[in-house]
């Protein structure tokens, strides 16, 4: 599914906007995030130089995080007041809270690991949502997410530019 979404975004935007803007957008999309942005940027797809791709994808993934941390609970409360949106919000909250045990237990370092280790269902978006739902303060959650993104950047850069770069070069 992620590959299809990445390929769809690339196909839909190629020729209309620059490669850099495409990876910036991919990095902002939930589910894809920095991981998808760096995979798209690598030699296997868009071949954006690593030194350009890293800050673009990092910033792209980071842009929505303050809004999620500061506003998502208010937005969810409003959405729960509507019949049509309430089930969606409850599903999102349930999914996020099912993954919250280590974040709740270890807070800062749990959040760093959750965001940093590239496994399905993890990342900055979900980490920010869980932090907000657990009531972790912005000044603690935001630095943990940034540090987690640094870890994810290192891992995904190695995968995208070294492992996959060697295969597709």
TrEMBL record:
The keyword NAD does not apply. It comes from the Bacteria. This is Small multi-drug export protein. The keyword Translocase does not apply. Pfam families: Sm_multidrug_ex (PF06695). The chain crosses the membrane at residues 21-41, 53-76, 108-136, 142-164. Keywords: Membrane, Transmembrane, Transmembrane helix. InterPro entries: Sm_multidrug_ex.
């Amino acid at each position: 599914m992620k590959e299809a979404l990445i390929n769809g975004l690339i196909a839909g935007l190629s020729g209309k906007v620059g490669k850099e803007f495409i990876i910036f957008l991919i990095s902002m999309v939930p589910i894809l995030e920095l991981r998808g942005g760096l995979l798209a940027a690598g030699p296997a797809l868009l071949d954006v130089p690593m030194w350009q791709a890293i800050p673009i994808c990092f910033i792209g993934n980071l842009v929505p995080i303050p809004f999620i941390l500061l506003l998502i609970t208010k937005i969810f409360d409003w959405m729960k007041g509507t019949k049509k949106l309430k089930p969606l919000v409850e599903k999102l909250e349930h999914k996020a809270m099912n993954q919250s045990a280590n974040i709740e237990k270890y807070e800062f370092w749990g959040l760093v690991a959750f965001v940093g280790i590239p496994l399905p269902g993890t990342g900055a978006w979900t980490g920010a949502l869980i932090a907000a739902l657990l009531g972790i303060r912005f000044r603690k959650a935001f630095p943990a997410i940034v540090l987690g993104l640094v870890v994810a950047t290192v891992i995904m850069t190695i995968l995208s530019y070294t492992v996959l770069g060697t295969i597709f070069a």
